[in-house]
Amino acid sequence: MAAHGMHFIPPLLGAALAIELIGSMCLITGYRAVTAAAVMFVYLGIVSVRLHDFWNLTGMAAAGTMTQFFKNLGMVGGLLMIAVYGPGRWLLGRRPNSHAL
Fold this sequence. Notes:
This protein is mostly helical and 101 residues long. It has one domain (9-87). It has helices at residues 9-29, 33-51, 59-85. Helix 1 (9-29) packs antiparallel against helix 2 (33-51) and helix 2 (33-51) runs antiparallel to helix 3 (59-85).
């Protein structure tokens, strides 16, 4: 983060930890999964563009960073699907006879 000119690194790392931990638990359990996916979608989009800027690098550094960027882009797509369509049948606590997905 410091190499990318960012300031207030400890609070940003704490926020990243909270978003990733709480968001992942919400997605796993299905509890407020749509909200968690939307927050993580925005967060991961910002992180990808800000910290995995392969277009500013050359050589092997660019290749490794490009891999991370496109990995994140795939996860962003999955998070967007959950944010739009919801967790589906994987919702924890869903009643078997419930027709709402």
